[in-house]
Amino acid sequence: MTAPDDVRAPTAEPAPPPASPTPRGPARLLRAWLHGTRTGALVRAVRPRQWLKNGLVLAAPTAAGVLDTAEGARGALIAFVAFCLAAGGAYLLNDAADAEADRLHPRKRRRPIASGALSVRAARIAGVTLVLAAPAVAALTGRWELPAVVAGYLALTFGYTAWLKHRPVVDLVAVAGCHVLRAYAGAVAVGVPVTSWFLVVISLGSLQLIAGKREAELRAHGADTGTRATLGAYSRAYLAQVRTMCSGAMIVTYCLWALDDHPGPFYGLSIVPFVLVVLRHNLLVDRGIGEEPEELALRDRPLQVFIGMQLALLVVGIYAT
Fold first, then answer.
1. CA distance 43 to 240
2. Cα angle 68, 74, 77; round to 5
3. Are 28 and 36 in contact (CB under 8 A)?
4. pLDDT for residue 120
5. Quick one: which H or E segment has residue 238?
6. What is the DSSP secondary-structure string of 3-17?
């Protein structure tokens, strides 16, 4: 999602994105299958693009330097698959519960369940199946901790759907908590300790993303659309303040970690792209972009470059020094 050149906050509704070029060949057939069949609708309903967030399970194994071992790679892969199943099932059950509200939303009404491409009954059956499969797959690591973390993630997700999403501030922390559990799952999947630095950075980064998402929703759709109960309790100034607080605290914490007795210069150098990622995200949210944070990582080229730079420096620092 490429941001416009004007950095000023928009005073009116953001312009709709330009239409995508008509796909050709295999891409056209895939799109026709996704939008023209029940199976394709089911695939869209589990939101494969949002599985990008499950990449957080790789953070702890990478930081611990075990991802290049057979056991570490196997444990991380199992954790990733388990969270994809858990997230897909949770999306299905959540969208089935929110189908009526989603039909009022200009974007969410195109989701398979809200649009009628996938029935509520079929979504619930598939959702329950995936939810039950997730802890079973997690158990393949041979560690009881990973199924427990997956179960905790599911409990928090369902608690959010049933109650927490109606409580201002608590809803922000609950969604951020889901991201933290993803990152923690990667650590328990390979049996590495989790440092306080790691948890603080992940927690603050998750809260910043969620605050930015809510701010973008409020900016684009207003507080009275009926699509999210807590939006009316927030103001753009409050959510911007939350982002600012999280950004500052996260940068300080990351700097302390990166400069804390690590060999070689690469950890310290990774501070530069890390700060650029944080600043770029805040800039995009201020421009009215950020309702789907995972889309930013897939479409915004400067953000991709900054993330790539940081990952490259960390990988070199971890595995080559």
1. 35
2. 100
3. no
4. 87
5. helix 236-258
6. PPS--SPPSSPPPPP
Confirm if 201 and 257 have CB atoms less than 8 A apart.
Answer: yes
pLDDT tens profile 33-87: 556 577 778 888 888 888 888 999 999 998 888 988 999 999 999 999 999 999 9
Please report, as a single letter, which amino acid is at residue 23. Answer: P
Q: Tell me the C-alpha distance between 183 and 62, whole Å.
A: 11
Contact 65, 111 (CB under 8 A): no
Q: Is 261 helix (H, G, I), strand (E, B) or coil?
A: coil
**What is the amino acid identity at position 26?**
P
Our measurement of the distance from residue 62's CA atom to the centroid of its chain's CA atoms, rounded to an integer in Å, reads: 18
Cβ neighbour number for residue 80 with a 10 Å cutoff: 21
Cα 306 to chain centroid distance, Å, stands at: 18
- What's the pLDDT at 152? 96
CA distances from 60 to 191, 224, 318 (A): 10, 40, 12
Running DSSP on this structure, what letter comes out for residue 22?
Answer: P
Q: Give the residue among 312, 286, 285 at the shortest CA–CA distance from 295.
A: 285
Largest CA distance in the chain: 56
Any idea what the Cα angle at residue 188 is, between residues 185 and 190, rounded to 5°? 110
Helix 38-45 vs helix 25-36: crossing angle, to nearest 10: 90
Q: Which residues are within 8 A (CB) of 21 and not within 5 positions of it... i.e. 6 or more apart?
A: none
Provide the residue type at 103 as one letter.
Answer: R
> 42-194 has which CATH code?
1.10.357.140
Tell me the C-alpha distance between 193 and 187, whole Å: 7
Q: What is the DSSP string of 72-109?
A: HHHHHHHHHHHHHHHHHHHHHHHHHHTHHHHTTSTTGG
pLDDT tens, residue by residue, 168-177: 999 999 999 9
Within 8 A by CB and 6+ apart from 38, the residues are 117, 118, 122
Q: Hey, where are the domains in the chain?
A: 42-194, 195-321
C-alpha span between 57 and 188 (Å, rounded): 10
